[in-house]
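Task card 7
Instruction: Convert sequence to structure tokens.
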Amino acid sequence: MAGEAQRRGGFTPYALLAPGMLWLVLFFMVPIWFLLQTALSKADAVGNTSFVWRWANFSDSWTSYQHQYLLSFRYAFIATVLCIAIGYPLAYVVAFRGGRYKNVLLGLVVVPFFTSYLVRTLAWKTILQDQGPFVRFLRDVHLLSQNGHLLSTSWAVIGGLTYNFLPFMVLPIYVSLEKIDPGLLEAARDLFSSPARAFRKVVLPLSLPGVFAGSLLVFIPAAGDFVNSALLGSPQTRMIGNVVQGNFLETLDYPSAAAISFVLMAIITVLVLIYSKILGTEEIA
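Output:
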């Protein structure tokens, strides 16, 4: 009986893992395999592909679209930094100063998710148009020249990315801040630590897992985004996501689009590994 119970105990972890592993195989490994097969294929003029182990697709994708890769990572990096700069104070206020209105404030953070991503971006296109009140106000206070405009610029794309992904930064940081034991802050005060020093020595280090998680949730989708560039940008702000969209849906060059997607995933993976090495991932919220 003891041996049978031991065998059942040894089988239980694998049984618990099975649904998750099946999910990963069906909805991650299988699509990745077909995408890799497409990336190594050759396309004819009408979009038909044939598998020929064409490894040159990967190097061609980098040499042909290097500018769009670098532009995408630059936009995603700036948007991530802006999300940290805006989201961290917001999460801090909600966590430590929200009081009985904490849930209401959190609800306001996620309210934009009740509308679609496309509608939110179109709303920004209306706000940033040249004849809109926002641009007229900036011109009146001389923050923008009389002939200046915001739409179709890099800052419009970065602003759209920042706005659309800001909740992904606020929520993980808020969870990390909520997990901080108030007794630690009381102990810092008892030891005559100033609020700034207590924040630097206690709050900030303990909230870094939330910053790490939020940075991943913002940077990765922002690097592959194509909606903000298409609606708020111009041909000069074309990101790598727009190239993938164009190759898949317009020119029907599926191998090139698949190869670009693989190169993008590889670069993001390397960047995430470097970032995780610097910041640590032991206690991701």
